Amino acid sequence: MKRVKTVILGAGLSGTYAGYLLTKSGDDDFIILEARDRMGGRIETFNSIFDLGPTWFWPEMQPALSRLVETLDLETFDQYDTGDLLFEIDPHIPPRRTNGYHSSPQSKRFIGGVSQLVSALASQIKPEKILLNSLAKSIAIDDGQIIVTSQPRNNQQHSLFSAEQVLLALPPRLAIETLKFSPALPQELSNQWHQTSTWMASHAKYIAIYDQPFWRQSGLSGSAQSRIGPMVEIHDASMPEENAALFGFIGLDAKTRKTLGKDQLTHLCRQQLVRLFGDKAKQINADFLKDWSQETLTATPADLYASHSHSPAPSFTVPLGDWKNKLFGIGSEWSSQFPGYLAGSIDAVEKALLRSSTDQKRKAPDAG
After folding, report:
1. pLDDT tens across 262-301, in order?
2. Residues 132, 39: contact at Cβ < 8 Å?
3. pTM score, two decimals?
4. Which of 30, 139, 281, 366 could disulfide-link 277, Cβ–Cβ 3.0 to 4.6 Å?
5. Judgement on whether residues 214 and 289 belong to the same structural domain of the protein
6. Are 265 and 153 contained in the same domain?
């Protein structure tokens, strides 16, 4: 059994940022357990640069995340929205072209995709502190210590970790669905966490890559809205000085997407781009469809029904009982300011670590 002060479950943005902050504070007595074979969680890229998960952040609205981006010296750029917008409402009527709009406040993207943020944070953490392919199965209290049991995905032998505290860097609902807590969490809290929708878990995105952003030559922004689908909202996903791209959010529910199948749904997305942007849209170099509802490390059966708004943040601590001051939620959904957003991860981690530090000081013996 390995003994550490802190076990962090999940190496998405929240878990990685928590490890980064602990390392910066001089506290490297932690381990990060990640079930996937990669870091990032819901942050994932196609062709190493195009975002399949979260895409934007808003510096004017999210100053803490903006400061972190500056500290890490990451390159960003404005989302391209210059030109007209396409709007289709009827399959028998050609798309309507109308004045586009500029986002306010300005939305930003990362050069190389959002994964650059996770990579930059991870580079400041000792590699041995991050264990991939480590699926946490249970969390139990034994003689005042927390015992975390994980199962490496490449063999059947379980690993045990003894800790003083556990940081849950995964969605609240996923924690309730996939982890066994002993003793059980208070029922009211458990219900609250289970009722918190996991942002993006019911969503799917399609991305198509081109040699050139041909739509810009026609005075189009690359943005489109559709009541026909399968994509209901489309944006320019091009990277500066890289291949051009368009991406869209698919409006069909998870059950319908599964019935259609990936190949048929991809075909319908390609047809839609041609319908909107003309024959040049046929010249796709590569495309990819990411359905987050099929990701068992993101979505649960309760997430298959779309949530069109971010859920209110649940309590990130256990207010009473054996788990008090031992368990903290740091996933983005636990943020009261930006639940589900990238900035929510930053907010949730900072809030939890501040509370954890305060609790540790309270428990420390009086030096005076």
Report:
1. 999 999 999 999 999 999 999 999 999 999 999 999 999 9
2. yes
3. 0.95
4. 281
5. yes
6. no
Residues 34, 67 within the same domain = no
Could you tell me the residue range of the domain that residue 57 belongs to? Answer: 50-113+202-294
d(CA 189, CA 319): 9
Same structural domain, 92 and 212: yes
For residue 283, the one-letter residue type is Q
Angle at 274 between CA 268 and CA 276, to 5 degrees: 100
Peptide bond preceding 230: is omega within 30 degrees of 0, i.e. cis?
yes
- Domain-located, residue 301: no
Cα angle 230-236-239, degrees, rounded to a multiple of 5: 135
Cβ atoms 17, 30 nearer than 8 A: no
State pLDDT tens for residues 128-138. Answer: 999 999 999 99
The CATH number of whichever domain residue 177 belongs to comes to 3.50.50.60
- Quick one: CA dihedral 126, 127, 132, 134, positive or negative? negative
Pairing status of strand 204-210 against strand 76-78: unpaired
Q: How many CB atoms lie within 10 A of CB 319?
A: 10
How far lies 292's CA from each of 60, 204, 300, 301, 308, in Å?
Answer: 29, 6, 10, 12, 15
In a domain, 333, yes or no: yes
Which two structure tokens, joined as six digits, stand for 220? 């189009």
* CA dist list (Å): 63 to 76, 182, 346: 15, 38, 10
> Do residues 229 and 244 make contact, with C-beta atoms less than 8 angstroms apart?
no
Cis preceding-peptide flag for 183 (omega within 30 of 0): yes
| Beta bridge partners of residue 236, listed in sequence order | 246
The contacts of residue 225 (CB under 8 Å, 6+ apart) are 85, 86, 87, 88, 232, 233, 234
The b/e string for 109-148 (b: 16+ C-beta within 10 A; e otherwise) is bbebbbbbbbbbbbeebeeebbbbbbbbeebebeeeebbb
Answer yes or no: do 38 and 140 share one domain: yes
* Strand partners of residue 244: 210
